[in-house]
Amino acid sequence: MSSLVKTHPAATQALLAKLGPAKVLTDEATCFAASFDNMRLSFMPEAVIRPGVEDDIGIVLKLANEYRIPVTVRGRGTGNTGASSPIQGGWVIHLDHWDKIEIDPISAMATVQPGAITARINELAAPHGLFFPPDPSSLKYCSIGGNIATNAGGLRAAKYGVVRDHVYALEGFLPTGEKVRWAAPLRKFVSGLNIRDLWIGSEGTLGVITQATLKLVNKPAARRTFLIACRTDEGALEAAAELMGLRVNPAVFEFLDTQTVEAAEKQRGSRVFTASELKGLADTHAILLVEIDGHPAALAEDAIKIRAWIGRHAIAFRETDVEAEAEALWDIRRTCSQAMYSLGNAKLNEDIVVPFRSYVELIRYTREVRDRIGLATPTFGHAADGNFHVHIMYDRDNPEHCRKAEKAIHEVMTKVVELGGAITGEHGIGIAKSPFLRLQHTPAEIGAMIAVKKALDPNGILAPGQIFDPLNVWEHRPVKVTLPWDKH
Questions:
Q1: pTM for the full model?
Q2: Which domains occur in the chain, in start order?
Q3: DSSP state letters, 253-274
Q4: Does the pLDDT at position 9 exceed 80?
């Protein structure tokens, strides 16, 4: 069920008087649709504002400060941590219709509004031989404003980095309603403090982005894809560390543990590798997916290194430089997330990061948790940067399962920090990771973050309750809705 918090009728009436009913929507259906993200925990706002021009945003924020109204900024709702859920009610600024994209091929830059769909940026950049590398799995649905707000990564982060590495400048509004611009559409800019990078990854708590200037790079001329079966999880991860030491720079390097492969094969209704390919060497196996891109001559050189590496570690493999065949190899990775539900009707999913030296210890720990609590712990993710997605699968209608899952996820996150890792690599904190923030950061570090928040948002109106206030999300039941990306 949706949570309903205190309403502010006088403030909303004042807002309606200034912006009009076409821009300020208060009907239940609109408010409900803006009450949750992909995490599907619903918190009802009082009004949804769809600004027409930038001045509308300034008006909203100034009124929110005057009346002390919580304000949450929203794009397309693809986030996984509840960061765009209005957990204290109030108003939602909805920017999915702000989706203009302009490509400057000479400067290799894109000027975009926050509602622009990430994949669309690449569609418009491609005719100029350019592309925007960050590629979250939801890139066909997610908006660039959310990507910037969470400093999103994606599969290609192995070679190209994360969103922060591709943002030249931001424009928008401070929480108090003043228009600001951080940096400029220039390749170099070092004037003043770097507030731009404070906004990137701040999850909508420090300002409202209205425009971004993005760095584009040359679109690679070719790519080559390798799908590799390894006998064990440990063997696959040890092989991953070795490949990175060979100075091969993969564009994509993905790991799927044996639990994930089994679930994905069940979902597909067929084995990834045939029995003849495996030659009876393994009933179960882990998978590595490697993709290199660039000039064909450079790929040929790297492919020689990769094939020799495969010969030392693989029990079976496939290789292609044909686009359609590469897409077929990718099918197993794309099946992962949905396939998890063959192991339980609910999951706790954490996008943790660990250093190379801790890969094997992490995977052994997830299996130890599985064996101890009797719940599946499938793990997959980005082997080139240690950003793995660890799952605890359980039956939401089974109280004992719920208790075990909650305890297990605390144990896993504690272990990640002990291993020198991070509690999130690309999803952000939102409300989902808020119980674990104090595992990662000292009181002094959190105090410094809160001081920055108070300096920019003295009345605490922007995304209140996010990040710093622990919320036990497993105590809230998600709403049952079908979202556009559920079918893909």
A1: 0.94
A2: 3-95+453-476 (3.30.43.10), 101-218 (3.30.465.10), 222-427 (3.40.462.10)
A3: EEEE-HHHHHHHHHHHTS-SS-
A4: yes
